[in-house]
TrEMBL record, chain A:
The lineage of its organism: Eukaryota, Metazoa, Chordata, Craniata, Vertebrata. Its main location: membrane. GO terms for cellular component: late endosome membrane; lysosomal membrane. This is VPS33B late endosome and lysosome associated. It comes from Oncorhynchus kisutch (Coho salmon). The keyword Ligase does not apply. It comes from the Eukaryota. InterPro entries: Sec-1-like_dom1 (IPR043154), Sec-1-like_dom3a (IPR043127), Sec1-like (IPR001619), Sec1-like_dom2 (IPR027482), Sec1-like_sf (IPR036045), VPS33_dom3b (IPR043155).
UniProtKB/TrEMBL annotation, chain B:
The keyword Mitochondrion does not apply. It comes from Oncorhynchus kisutch (Coho salmon). It comes from the Eukaryota. This is Spermatogenesis-defective protein 39 homolog. Keywords: Cytoplasmic vesicle, Endosome. Residues 177-274 form the Vps16 C-terminal domain. The keyword Thylakoid does not apply. Signal peptide: none annotated. GO terms for cellular component: early endosome; late endosome. GO terms for biological process: intracellular protein transport; vacuolar transport. It is found in: Cytoplasmic vesicle; Early endosome; Late endosome.
Length: 613, 492
């Protein structure tokens, strides 16, 4: 897709090893408990577990029955219960003592074991102790840190990371992130360079370093060269934008869970929905996942025509040819046919949904916000969105984008929009507003800080020097100084000229050519400069906490030096992954994305809600 | 109708804007349709045979799932062959003055020293804060052997490290306030939330809350862990005290307010909210909470009344449109919609009347109109719709006015299946001529189009339009009439 594609990109390391490690440890844990046992699995852990082990494997290790954790007394014939628990949120887990005590009341004494994944917390053990069931229940950990979702995506499957760290200020997952890095380092390292930005990245790095120092060292041929750590709050704008790349759009609309999506009957044109794995194994998907949605139709129709031709070949075949056709080609064609009709169905359904939702107008508003143009029009669009009680999360997303791009809302607007929001969606969202404020996603401008957009753009910064340095190609680069705002914004907006989405020229194609995601732009710049030199002004606005360290490795340039591991602390979007894949193709690099979870605007904002009991 | 979820509506969730297009939508869409047809047409061949697992299915139903395809190749689990041996000591971040780790040296001891001199600790040994001396202190009191029996010798740093590694540790020996705080600060410096919380649990058990709160004020990171921990285990009361002691009254108020979500019974919830009114919210939030209380109070009255009316079958409106859900705990706008639907035209004095709700909750004209329009259009009460826009001037002439553009009104009406006769009245009111024509064409309001072209004296367009309507229709006749009118002076 890019004009200048380097074809010498190195091969990716084999991450199935990580699954194997996790599976072996699980089996080991199960074997620690001789005899038949039931396994209770927390809902959140089910999909990840499914990627690691299947039922047969579990049965082979004396697992009798499998249950979903439902926080009610356990009806089970087995006298030994192994309970897999994805620990948090603690509030759910809190009910476990009741289960044990209910058992006791019936005069049953069963052995319980809680296996925490990926690690146990003292707070939970303390709770067991306080409830007087510490001896009845024993605990263990399943160090299942990393789940490879695809050839180049590894997830920690910790969606709670974002809220716990950025909103609550709880650092419970910092060491987990450090341990995950440690694991990757000891299997695929040693890494030669580590760059990072953000407070959490720094702490995760420290934790990782300490764990490396504690453990034994083994010398190996490195399979991954450099590492880039980035905190999600360095760039909160990108995950709040509508996704228009195929994979991102599928995630926004159907929600991809653990690399798997459930397509509704609407898509499958049958009466039941089906679950489909979405990864590079799916040949059709693999070709369209990174494409701008508008390019997908053309591709799919071409594919359909090719398929038709391939099928048509069989007319006029003699028996022998037919036999060969059936044995050699038919299976492949059939598979392609299935995948094709699936993705055509999905595209069609997404198109319908988006049409109903006035997607074009929504995108226009988003772009105006990012460019800082026609803000009053944007505000009245958002107002109308709220007044009509259209999707609550969408309204919130637009409000947050407005606040992030405008250094906060004018007090008058803030009050009025908040008032209308509460009227439309429920007054209990007072709590949500308080959370958003705490995180800096939706704030009021401080008194005295009443610069207009133009003033802040022209007067306060637009540091020509920085802008000039970060400028790449024909892109116009604008740098906003956001002063007091806790989440500063540097935006990389494209000039107005026509952008040919068929031939993307830079990472901006993931947002229809309108702007380049900041997170990915930073990565590109730092890799290019081999550090943060020249980006001082930018990092100052991003609250600093940038670092770059070099390991003591020999200067041998191997292929692994062109494999870059990027870790997002707090989640990353499929659009960002697509952008990095694009960058990789352009520069002859391969990116491996490690993230605490795959996120999107809805997940990010839903984690801010407090309106349920 | 009454909406269960505010974001689930489709009754007026409609588009004034043009449909979703990326480039050339029609083309793409047709192409897509063609592809689909093509693919479907070859389906017959494919479906003769078993559906195979070309598409991987994933489930966890307790039944064996044979389809997980990652499958194990019996690879060596021993990790990779050895390469060259290198010095692999792991680098620290050098350019990091802001990292707490590096600044830890000064913060701890200086803090304690400062505190020690201010009074309350003077009775302790003067040597505290200096670990090298403190470590010897116990030995002065007890023989070394006895001491070793029950107290391990780990320093705060070692203890924290052991806790991080999941090894045996003991916190009991951290008895003096200074030792406890050293331990806490060490945990904070290790950036491990799990350990920070563990230490906080110990401090919670072994320090009076006043002392703990006082020490937490200067320790932001530890404080946030403590608050989060208390939230998770539901220690509401302690949290309230904590916020109070820190003068974080708004946080305290919001946290207590949050509890209303746990109150299921509507009357109890109302009483709970009433109780909330006295909490120290910010002025704006206080108004919202007041609204919340008033709203639920009204909803309870309306619900009780309507339930009774509905079941007795007295009112036609409930018979014709039975209620789908209770109005309790719905947002203000949903309540207004409900009121416009079931209680339209009631006098301002009743709680359930739209006017009363509008006034009580200070609903803007625009919002009121949108909601009311939606409800009346849903009921096809076109007369009411008309009345919403009609104003009389002092001469007694009527005129239609709207705080929102008439193109939006048309849109909402159309989504509610308004007949063309109704629609065209509003299309006519759209000021922008181009917009008017495009709306009229979209909704087939022939009269509007014909009249507009006539008024524009655009003969050409009128002729073009004549080609689009049926020959036998009244529209056709009308166009013919106009075109043959010699009085008109066409511009083209």
């Amino acid at each position: 897709m890019a004009h200048s594609v380097r074809r010498d990109a190195p091969e990716l390391p084999d991450f199935s090893l990580l699954k194997r490690l996790a599976r072996d440890q699980l089996i080991y844990l199960l074997e620690q408990l001789p005899g038949r046992k039931d396994l209770f699995i927390e809902a959140d852990l089910m999909s990840p577990l499914d990627r690691i082990a299947n039922v047969t494997t579990l049965k082979q290790h004396d697992v009798d029955k499998l249950y979903k954790v439902e926080h009610k007394p356990i009806v089970s014939t087995s006298d030994q219960t192994v309970r897999g628990c994805f620990l948090y949120p603690l509030t759910n887990w809190f009910l476990f003592p009741d289960v044990v005590n209910a058992d006791k009341a019936f005069g049953r004494f069963r052995r319980y074991k809680i296996i925490f994944s990926p690690q146990k917390f003292y707070a939970c053990e303390n709770l067991l102790e306080e409830q007087g069931i510490f001896g009845d229940v024993t605990t263990d950990e399943w160090s299942f840190y990393l789940l490879p979702l695809d050839d180049d995506i590894i997830s920690l499957e910790l969606p709670e990371f974002f809220r716990d760290y950025f909103l609550e200020g709880d650092q419970r997952w910092v060491r987990t992130a450090g341990s995950a890095l440690h694991l990757l380092h000891s299997v695929y390292g040693p890494f030669s360079k580590v760059y990072g930005i953000g407070r959490c990245s720094k702490m995760a790095y420290e934790s990782w370093r300490e764990q490396v120092e504690e453990g034994e060292q083994r010398a190996r041929q490195a399979e991954i060269g450099n590492v880039f750590l980035i905190d999600r709050d360095v760039d909160l704008v990108t995950p709040l934008c509508s996704q228009v790349v195929y994979e991102g759009l599928v995630d926004d609309i159907f929600r991809i869970k653990c690399g798997c999506v459930e397509f509704c009957p609407d898509v499958t044109s049958s009466d039941k929905s089906i679950k489909v794995m979405l990864n590079s194994q799916d040949k059709v998907f693999n070709e369209i996942r990174n494409e701008h949605f508008s390019q997908v139709f053309g591709f799919l129709s071409q594919k359909a025509r090719n398929l038709q031709t391939a099928y048509d070949k069989r007319s006029g075949m003699d028996i022998k040819q037919m036999k060969t056709f059936v044995s050699e080609e038919l299976k492949g064609l059939k598979q392609e046919h299935r995948l094709l009709s699936l993705h055509i169905g999905a595209s069609e359904s997404m198109m319908k949904k988006k049409t109903k939702q006035d997607f074009q107008e929504l995108l226009k508003t988003e772009h105006s916000l990012l460019e800082g143009f026609e803000i009053r029009e944007c505000i009245s669009y958002i107002e109308e969105h709220i007044n009509r009680q259209v999707s609550m999360v969408e309204s919130m997303r637009l409000l947050c984008l407005l606040s992030l791009t405008e250094n906060g809302l004018l007090p008058k607007d803030y009050r009025s929009l908040k008032n209308q929001f509460l009227q439309s969606y429920g007054i209990e969202h007072l709590l949500t507003f308080s959370n958003l404020k705490q995180l800096g996603l939706l704030v009021e401008q401080q008194p005295g800080e009443t610069l207009t957009v133009m003033e802040s753009r022209v007067g306060k910064l637009v540091n020509d020097k920085t802008a000039g340095q970060i400028q790449a190609g024909p892109n116009t680069v604008t740098v906003f100084n956001t002063g007091w705002v806790p989440i500063p914004l540097l935006y990389l907006i494209q000039s107005d000229e026509e952008y040919d989405l068929r031939v993307p020229r830079d990472m901006a194609y993931i947002f229809s050519g309108a702007y380049i995601p900041l997170s990915c732009k930073l990565i590109e710049q730092v890799l290019e400069r081999d550090g943060w030199t020249g980006l001082e002004e930018v990092t100052r606005m991003l609250n600093g906490h940038e670092f770059a360290v070099t390991g003591k490795t020999s200067g041998v340039k191997t292929d692994s030096q062109r494999i870059i591991l990027v870790m997002f602390l707090g989640g990353c979007t499929f659009s960002e992954i697509s952008a990095l894949r694009f960058l990789g193709r352009e520069k002859g690099l391969k990116f491996i994305v490690v993230t605490t979870a795959i996120t999107n605007s809805a997940r990010l904002l839903e984690s801010m809600l407090d309106n349920h009991a | 109708m009454i909406r269960g979820k505010p974001d689930e509506d489709d009754y007026w969730n409609n588009s004034k804007f043009k449909a979703f297009t990326f480039d050339d939508e029609d083309d793409d869409f047709t192409r897509l349709k063609e592809s689909k047809r093509a693919v479907n047409s070859i389906r017959s061949l494919v479906e003769e045979e078993d559906e195979e697992d070309d598409v991987e299915k994933v489930s966890w139903s307790g039944e064996p799932v044979g389809s997980i395809s990652w499958s194990v190749k019996e690879t060596e689990s021993s990790i990779r062959s050895t390469g060259e041996v290198r010095d692999q000591s792991f680098p620290k971040i050098h350019t990091a003055p802001s990292l707490p780790k590096n600044s830890s040296g000064y913060s701890l001891s200086s803090l304690f020293k400062g505190k020690a001199k201010t009074g309350s600790f003077q009775s302790f040994s003067e040597s505290f804060g200096d670990p090298s001396i403190r470590n010897y202190a116990p030995e002065l009191r007890k023989p070394k052997s006895e001491y070793k029996d029950y107290v391990s010798d780990w320093t705060p740093e070692e203890t924290v490290k052991r806790m991080q590694q999941g090894k045996v540790y003991s916190l009991e020996k951290f008895r003096s306030l200074q030792d406890k705080l050293l331990l806490l600060d060490e945990a904070v410096n290790a950036h491990d939330g799990n350990v920070i919380t563990a230490v906080l649990i110990y401090l919670k058990k072994s320090l009076s809350k006043e002392i703990l709160f006082r020490e937490l004020i200067t320790r932001e990171i530890a404080l946030r862990h403590y608050i989060h921990y208390l939230k998770e285990i539901g220690e509401q009361k302690l949290l309230v005290e904590l916020f109070k002691s820190m003068d974080r009254t708004e946080d305290m108020a919001l946290m207590q307010y949050r509890d209303h979500l746990n109150v299921r019974d509507e009357n109890k919830r109302r009483d709970f909210l009433k109780n909330c009114l006295s909490f120290p919210f910010s002025p704006d939030d206080a108004t919202h909470v007041q609204d919340h209380y008033t709203l639920l109070e009204r909803q309870i009255i309306i619900e009780a009344n309507d339930k009774q009316v509905e079941s007795s079958g007295q009112a036609d409106i409930f018979k014709k449109y039975p209620r789908k859900a209770s109005i309790l705990n719905m947002p203000i706008i949903t309540t207004l919609y409900y009121s416009c639907f079931y209680h339209y035209g009631e006098s301002d004095g009743t709680f359930s009347s739209p006017a009363n709700i509008r006034k009580t909750f200070r609903i803007s004209d625009k919002q009121f109109l949108l909601t009311c329009l939606g409800a009346r259009a849903k009921l096809k009460a076109w007369f009411d719709v008309d009345a919403l826009f009609t104003t009389k001037n002092w001469l007694g002439y009527t005129k239609k006015r709207s705080p929102i553009g008439f193109h939006r009104i048309v849109d909402i009406l159309q989504k509610n299946n308004a007949p063309v006769q109704v629609l065209q009245d509003y299309v006519n009111l759209v000021e922008d001529v181009e917009q008017k024509i495009s709306l009229a064409q979209k909704y087939k309001c022939h009269d509007v189009i014909i009249n507009t072209y006539r008024d524009l004296k655009d003969r050409q367009q009128l002729i073009v339009y004549r080609g689009k309507v049926e020959r036998s229709s009244s529209e056709y006749r009308k166009i013919e009439e106009i075109l043959s009118n010699s009085q008109l002076r066409w511009k083209n």
